[in-house]
Amino acid sequence: MLLPADYHMHTPLCRHAVGEPTEYAAHALRVGLREIGFTDHSPMRRDDFDDWRMRADQLDEYVAKVQQARRDHPQLTIKLSLEVDYLPGHEDWIRELAARHPWDYLIGSVHYVSDAFDLDNPAKLSEWKKRDAFEVWSVYFERLTMAAESRLFEIIGHADLPKKFKFYPDRDCTPMFTQFLRAAKRSDVAIELNTAGLRKDCREIYPSPAIVRLAHAEGVPITFGSDAHAPGEVGMDFAAAIQLARDTGYTHACQFKQRVRTMVAF
User: Fold this and answer.
1) What pLDDT shows up at residue 2?
2) What are the extents of the domains in the chain?
3) How far apart are CA 13 and CA 133, in angstroms?
């Protein structure tokens, strides 16, 4: 089986991952991957915005680490990319980041539903208990839709991240899922099948099978990502993600070079 590219992985610069990029690349080869992409958490304008991303002065170091992995493993295609937080009002900063290096693609992700509430942060679990889950999911998908509409990204990351700690709405969310996916289709942006959810409390790939079915019906393309924060997580649970994609009707995934997409069978 030809494995699709693993397009989501991190480095120690984000302060919550271990292992150098060259180690991730070595593991990718061991598990049979032919292409990977590094997408560490991009800097914010303010380095004290939070404590789980690289500083702005580390961006060149990040690029150098990825370039070293390329030199160490010439038989593996390694893409240079970022996972960029989408927050309303930060679009100019994202454009600045996009212009700093020849990125192969950008993953746009929503972690914040307010400036102080990054909903997937274990340190913020108490915030969930103060809020109605449907309201959190509603704000999250409103921002995810804005991210898709912005046309700043090639991929939208882990599209139902609010389920991480198993805080689920008590109402049908299909309308908000559909609104987001239609925005993605209009903007020609992909969504990823992110296997990290299988390692979290929700024990489910991001996004859910229901959202993947809706995505296929709307004609939204896909990528695959392990969201690896350690070398041994590269390509993890890809068999399950491929099966989900095939069961839904997908036969091709996106690959990117210099932000230009091609479609590759898996």
Assistant:
1) 85
2) 12-265
3) 32
